[in-house]
Amino acid sequence: DVNSMECLLKQLLGKDNSLRSSAEQTIADLEKTPETYLIGLMNVCCLYGENLISLGSCTSTLSSVRNLSCILIRQKLSFSEDGVWINLSPEFQSSIKAELLKLLDV
Fold first, then answer.
1. How many Å apart are CA 9 and CA 12, to the nearest integer?
2. How many CA atoms lie within 13 A of 5 on its CB side?
3. How far apart (Å, rounded) are the C-alpha atoms in residues 8 and 21?
4. Under DSSP, is residue 33 helix (H, G, I), strand (E, B) or coil?
5. DSSP string over 44-76
6. 21, 11 contact by CB (below 8 A)
7. Which of 6, 32, 41, 68 is most deeply packed, by most CB within 10 A?
8. Within a 10 A sphere around the Cβ of 81, how many other Cβ atoms?
9. What count of other Cβ atoms lies within 10 Å of the Cβ of residue 87?
10. What pLDDT digit, counting tens, does each position of 12-34 carry?
11. Residue 82 — φ and ψ, nearest 5°?
12. Residue 9 near residue 44, CB atoms below 8 Å
């Protein structure tokens, strides 16, 4: 759910250490199912991408949440030891590529 992921990312960016620690643990749990985790991040990134275009401007929180989702996507899709790209199904890789290209086209 995009609202849950948005809330989680806001907690990661927040100043409350207990909320941030809880969000970090939730992210660690989500990372165990990389396709679900990436879908959640992509939904936040795509949703905010559309809103940023239609609004013409954004709040710093909105921009920060979108930026964080993009950073986390990049980290997970890398070929480094933290990356999961090579473990994703070819179909899922294709859908991620298509969504990322849509974002660049906007």
1. 5
2. 24
3. 11
4. coil
5. HHHHHHHHHHHHSS--HHHHHHHHHHHHHHHHH
6. no
7. 41
8. 5
9. 9
10. 999 999 999 999 999 999 999 99
11. -85, -15
12. yes
Scanning the structure block, which residue is given the tokens 């999961």? 84
Tokens 């590529």, residue?
97
Q: How far is CA 22 from CA 14, 35, 65, 71, in A?
A: 11, 21, 17, 20
Residue 4: name the closest of 33, 39, 35 by CA.
Answer: 39
Q: What is the pLDDT of residue 102?
A: 86
User: Residue 86 has which token pair?
Assistant: 């090579």
Distance CA 84, CA 105 (A): 25
Looking up tokens 């930026």 gives 67
Residue 87, token pair as written in the block: 């473990």
- Encoded amino acid at 63, one letter: S
How confident is the model at residue 52, as a pLDDT? 44
Of the candidates 89, 9, 20, the residue with the CA atom closest to the CA atom of residue 42: 9
